[in-house]
Amino acid sequence: MRALKIAATGMSAQQMRVEVISHNLSNMSTTGYNARRAEFADLHYQQVHRAGTISASDGTMLPTGVQLGLGVRPAAVSVNLAQGSSSATGADLDVAIEGKGYLEVTLPSGAAAYTRDGALKRSADGLIVTSEGLHVAPGITIPADAKSLSVNQQGEVYAYFDGTVPAQLLGQFTLTGFTNPRGLEAIGGNLFTETEASGPPLQGTAGLDGLGMLRQGYLEESSVDPIYEITELIEAQRGYELNSKVITAADQMLAATVQVR
Amino acid sequence: METAGYAVLSRQSGLMRELQLIANNVANANTTGYRQQGVIFSEYIRATDHGSLSMSAAHVRDSSFTQGAITRTGATLDLAIEGEGFFAVITPGGERLTRNGAFTTSAQGDLVTHDGYPVLSAAGGPVFVPPGAADLAVARDGTLSSQGLPIGQIGLLRPPDTKELERDGATLFRAPNGTGPVEDPAIIQGALESSNVDPVLQLARLIEVQRAYEMGQGFLDREDERQRAAIKTLFT
């Protein structure tokens, strides 16, 4: 009874889809989160009779053959890289990336990670850090007496002081791009790390290099569309039920077989 | 005297095969670019010592290549085909065709499927997407452009006859008799073509198969009783 196993692959696929949807929905308000979607592909085919073989009984060529599929498998959980909408926060150190670049941060291990979450803070020693305290490249220190900050589209950070002192350039954020950003590995905390599939990080300047611009006083919202997710959820649930119907039918047919004397 | 039993058995095994097929269709009801399959029953005649025996044989064929629903996803590299044609991809086993247009780029910048197979351009080579390319757009004829400047063209191919396509898993098809270009390609960017499985039809057929199978088993039961009664009458 292969039908039982095939329907089981269908049920586990729909279950995985529900998991991806619930992950999306739970990150509906996560800054810079990109919605994910589960992708499926059909499994191998059993070639009972290959098309084009010569039929043994009368020598004609089989025009189509017999190919029985063995179910479904998850192919990928792909990230939709569409830009989330920007919401105004007015905070000096909130920067939204308009484009496909990432901010580079340094993990406690010293390795580099990348994020689109531009809700930045100031650490005790004046460094610009993420909400979780990770240093943002290239390591910009804000002087203690700075009255206000301004970040321009190119990522240059200026400090303003009381009195007549002119604005002082503190540093410039770098943006990083990847040949295949979908290949980045998510490590939680809105962070991503480089993989073999993403390609090496390509450092660039905001406003140039096609990586996008920075916008001070805004944050990129999560790109999750709750209406889309809910319809997906209903579809997944019905898909699950349909597969379970196949299991019921296969079971009843099996029962009928067993009952024959 | 046993011929009736054989005829029913051939039908029962055909129904089992059809159940397996329905299970595969239902399991792939959400597989992008999947094409549903059907079963055709045909008569199968065998000569015996006492005339001929007519049985049934179930042939899996009839992959339906009707258009699946096109769903918007908004992703730049999600492409759906409207009408005829297939994307051509290169796998270790050779060129394959697919209607699944959920593409991404490789670490080297080539356009690939989620299984990592490169997508072929109209000229037959890989499609290169420069890492810094902004405002990527794909036109209806497959022309890929960045900021209005063309940088490549995705090819659409079709076999001489869709009936001869062989399935290769992962929504890939093998065209044993070669392929040719599609005359009027229509690619939609930011959308994917859903599976063309009709769940209502599959469910209806599932019930039909189940009932037909139970009827067959009932027939086998009665045939068994009939033979017992006959033997009893003959030997008492």
From TrEMBL, chain A:
Where are the annotated coiled coils located? none
Give Gene Ontology CC terms: bacterial-type flagellum basal body, distal rod
Keyword set includes Signal: no
Q: Where is the Flagellar basal-body/hook protein C-terminal domain?
A: 215-259
The record's InterPro entries line, in alphabetical order, gives: Flag_bb_rod_N, Flagellar_FlgE/F/G, Flg_bb/hook_C_dom, FlgE/F/G-like, FlgG_G_neg, LlgE_F_G-like_D1
- Subcellular location, record wording: Bacterial flagellum basal body
Question: Which segments cross the bilayer?
Answer: none
| Complexes and interactors | The basal body constitutes a major portion of the flagellar organelle and consists of four rings (L,P,S, and M) mounted on a central rod. The rod consists of about 26 subunits of FlgG in the distal portion, and FlgB, FlgC and FlgF are thought to build up the proximal portion of the rod with about 6 subunits each.
List, alphabetically, the PANTHER family matched.
Answer: FLAGELLAR BASAL-BODY ROD PROTEIN FLGG, FLAGELLAR PROTEIN
Q: Return the protein name.
A: Flagellar basal-body rod protein FlgG
| Organism of derivation | Alloyangia pacifica
Q: What is the lineage of its organism?
A: Bacteria, Pseudomonadati, Pseudomonadota, Alphaproteobacteria, Rhodobacterales
From TrEMBL, chain B:
Q: Indicate where this protein is primarily found.
A: other
Q: To which species is this protein native?
A: Alloyangia pacifica
Task: Tell me the domain of life.
Answer: Bacteria
Provide the assembly information: The basal body constitutes a major portion of the flagellar organelle and consists of five rings (E,L,P,S, and M) mounted on a central rod. The rod consists of about 26 subunits of FlgG in the distal portion, and FlgB, FlgC and FlgF are thought to build up the proximal portion of the rod with about 6 subunits each.
Q: Which InterPro entries match?
A: Flag_bb_rod_N, Flagellar_FlgE/F/G, Flg_bb/hook_C_dom, FlgE/F/G-like, FlgF, LlgE_F_G-like_D1
- What family is it from? Belongs to the flagella basal body rod proteins family.
Q: Name one GO cellular component term.
A: bacterial-type flagellum basal body, rod
Q: Give the protein's recorded name.
A: Flagellar basal-body rod protein FlgF
Q: Which UniProt keywords apply?
A: Bacterial flagellum, Cell projection, Cilium, Flagellum
Q: Where in the cell is it found?
A: Bacterial flagellum basal body
UniProt entry tagged with the keyword Disulfide bond? no
Positions of the Flagellar basal body rod protein N-terminal domain: 13-35
In this chain the Flagellar hook protein FlgE/F/G-like D1 domain maps to: 80-145
Name any Gene Ontology BP term. bacterial-type flagellum-dependent swarming motility
Q: Which residues does UniProt assign to the signal peptide? A: none
Query: What sequence ranges are listed for the domain Flagellar basal-body/hook protein C-terminal?
Result: 189-231
